[in-house]
Amino acid sequence: MGIGDKIHNAAESAGGKIKEAAGKVTDNEKLEAEGKADQAGASAKKAGENVKDAFNK
């Protein structure tokens, strides 16, 4: 996994956490769900990159 991918995934996850928190504070279920989806997407990408790294070693 390249450093750029790690930074991108971390940023996507952090953004998702912010969206989720903002959705909870404002009682906006759509925004909260988008935040959770962003976090799940970042986790899936990270897992995929980890699998690629494992095969490259």
Describe this structure in words.
With 57 residues, this protein is mostly helical. The protein has one domain (3-52). Helix content is 89%, strand content 0%. The chain contains two helices and no strands. Helix 1 packs antiparallel against helix 2 (29-56). It is elongated. The model has no long low-confidence stretch (mean pLDDT 90).
Order of helices and strands: HH
Distance between the termini: 11 Å
Residue share in helices?
Answer: over 70%
- Spans of at least 5 consecutive residues whose pLDDT stays below 50 are none
Mean pLDDT across every amino acid position = 90
Q: What would you call the shape?
A: elongated
- Number of beta strands: 0
| Whole-angstrom Rg | 13 Å
Specify the biggest β-sheet. none
How large is the share of residues in beta strands? under 5%
Count of distinct structural domains: 1
Topology, element by element:
Elements: H1 3-25, H2 29-56
Helix pairs in contact: 1-2
List keywords for this structure.
2 helices, mainly alpha, 57 residues, elongated
Short description:
This protein is mainly α and 57 residues long.
